[in-house]
Design brief:
Blueprint: H1 4-16, H2 22-32, E1 95-102, E2 105-111, E3 117-120, E4 125-126, E5 131-136, E6 140-148, E7 154-162
Antiparallel strand pairs: 1-2, 2-3, 4-5, 5-6, 6-7
Amino acid sequence: MKRLAPLVIALALAGCGGGDMDDLRSFVAETGKDMQGKIEPLPQVKAYEPFSYNAFDLPDPFKPRKLSTGGGGGLQPDLTRPKEPLEAFSLETLKMVGVLSKKGVIHAVIKTPDNAIYHIRTGNYVGQNFGLVTKITDSEVTLREIVQDSAGDWSERTSTLILQE
């Protein structure tokens, strides 16, 4: 039995090495004739041309424009008056949470995003657009804001803070 195993292995290897693969070799050689790769030449490298930026004197479009205090008449906010605490917040972040009456004067109770409570009355300023409180009712605070458009002209608009339940 021990002599039979090497004989079987030798016969198996001899059966795998047949010389009848001429048709396979000719097929591979014939198919490979048209398959030669063609590499295109690299593109010509252009010389670097430096660019000089000459727009240093123009205003930066990504920075907010500074408000000018001069200029002809018309509607303009008073930029010299001291700012009130609620002018640091945008109007969208403030909430009206109640109404009080002190000595016959109606006060609105305003809550800021940092949960601070302020009492305002007619004549106070609220918001970042020079919002003057013109009217306080049981359900809302009416403001007259002065905003600047892209041309630099000032215009009025009316905004309201509605009582939050």
